[in-house]
Amino acid sequence: QVENRDSDANGSSDNVDNEKKYKNVDDYSNGDTVSHKNGGSTWEGRLKIAYLLAYPKSGASYTSFLMARATNTSVATNQISSAYTDPNGFASFVFDMGTTMSDNDPANSFMDIGSPLWMKAYFKETALPEHLVLTESQCSGFCLPPCIPEEYIETDASFEESCRDVDTGTVGLPTPKSEVKKIVHLIRDPFSNVVSRFHEYREQTKYKSRKSNFHGDDRTGFHNWCKMDEQTMKDVEASPLIANQVKLLMKDVPCASEFFKYIAWHNHVVEMIWNEDYESMEIYYEEYDSEVLRKALVKQLAAFMNYAVVDNDTFPSFISVNSYTGYFTKEEKKSVEKLVKGLALTRTARLLDRYF
After folding, report:
1. How big is the CA angle at 23 (ends 122 and 50), to the nearest 5 degrees?
2. How far from chain centre, in Å, is Cα 125?
3. Which pLDDT score, from 0 to 100, does residue 316 have?
4. Is residue 51 within 8 Å of 183, Cβ to Cβ?
5. How much of the chain exceeds pLDDT 90, in percent?
6. Which among 68, 52, 138, 135 is positioned nearest to 95, based on CA atoms?
7. Of 279, 254, 274, 265, which Cα lies nearest the Cα of 336?
8. Do 63 and 283 meet the contact criterion of CB atoms below 8 Å apart?
9. Are 289 and 320 in contact (CB under 8 A)?
10. Nearest-CA neighbor of 8 among 138, 162, 124, 190?
């Protein structure tokens, strides 16, 4: 079962220490062998990457588990927190670059790898892909408040590179751009996505007790959290990185900086797909709520990845899509819509139009 309360993009709730050991997929022992026919020390002939790009808390984890189960194909991630680890605590790289990293061998770093990690989504039960591997990435351009614009505003170039960065707790090179071939763009209703970010904040700061009215798990708690944005908005006002027209549009939006991050993040994905001429497809998280649409999405994504659907009936558990649009008044929704129209690229605005 995959917990899908907010379907966070970090996958399972299991915590994987950043100091975990790493090794190549061809290095397994004790009956835990994983074969990879695309081994070697050069990039030629290796698996290519199809990134599943998802803003935090928008359903990437469920999407990965769903595709792994439906196609019996292993998926990958740029996040160590959702990587598969063997009984000895080793995570495995998608690209075997001939380097092993462990707690006892600090001289071997991640510097020359540039490889995603195999994800824990049914990894032991699925087959490795032959040509293209679906790989989760959140990229950058987001942070939980309080944070200043310099922490989340990216250029197109810095954002694109961040999508190829592999988060292992060490400094390393991103996956080479030449290895990226396709993009799957996952989109969630902006209102519910921002509220789910509030839930993430509560989880990280331990505000889980309903006795706390300030950050209770309800509409009041959410809007109290948004009031923290007042200091953030002072930083926004002083920042030369945000256009004055956009600053004016943000004034009437609750949690304005959170909506700014959401819109800017999707702008960057749209711009990256255009600039790099990637073949791409969009998935709307809300369509998982319908079993009919879910099955159709599985077939569509499998065809995009050139995978065969082997099981379109036994899906990971999915109770329902959590919608939090009721946390906002009509006036607040209209203010968010104006911000979208003022900040979003034309293509981004069309992708989000269904939510207004």
Report:
1. 55
2. 23
3. 76
4. yes
5. 57
6. 135
7. 254
8. yes
9. yes
10. 138
- Angstrom distances, CA of residue 155 to CA of 141, 267, 268: 9, 11, 8
Instruction: Return the pLDDT at 123.
Output: 86
State yes or no: pLDDT of 171 exceeds 70.
no
Please give the average per-residue pLDDT across 17-27, as a whole number. 35
Q: CB-based contacts of 224: which residues, under 8 Å, 6+ apart?
A: 213, 214, 215
Radius of gyration of the chain (CA): 20
Give residue 96's pLDDT band: very low, low, confident or very high (50, 70, 90).
low
Residue 47 phi/psi, 5° resolution? -60, 145
> Letter for the amino acid at 140?
S
pLDDT mean over 112-133: 86
Place of tokens 């200043």: 148
Greater pLDDT, 13 or 283: 283
Mean pLDDT score, 132-147: 93
Taking the C-alpha atoms of residue 121 and residue 77, their distance in angstroms, rounded to an integer, is 10
Residues 162-175: b if buried by 16+ CB within 10 A, e if exposed: bbbbbbbebebebb
* CA–CA gap between residue 121 and residue 324 (Å, rounded): 27
What are 156's two structure tokens? Answer: 């197109």
Tell me: the pLDDT tens digits for 238-256?
999 999 999 999 999 999 9
64 near 136, Cβ under 8 Å? yes
Q: Among candidates 98, 90, 106, 75, which has minimal Cα distance to 17?
A: 90
Q: How many CB atoms lie within 10 A of CB 157?
A: 10
The vertex-279 CA angle with 277 and 281, nearest 5°, equals 130
Note whether 55 and 188 are within 8 A (CB): yes
Residue-level length of the chain: 356
Angle made by CA atoms 17, 21, 26, in degrees to the nearest 5: 135
Residues in contact with 209: Cβ distance below 8 Å, sequence separation at least 6, in sequence order: none
Bridge partners, 127 (sequence order): 73
- Look-up: residue for tokens 């109290």? 224
67 residue type, one letter: M
Where does residue 59 fall: left (phi above 0), alpha (psi -120 to 50 degrees), or beta otherwise?
left
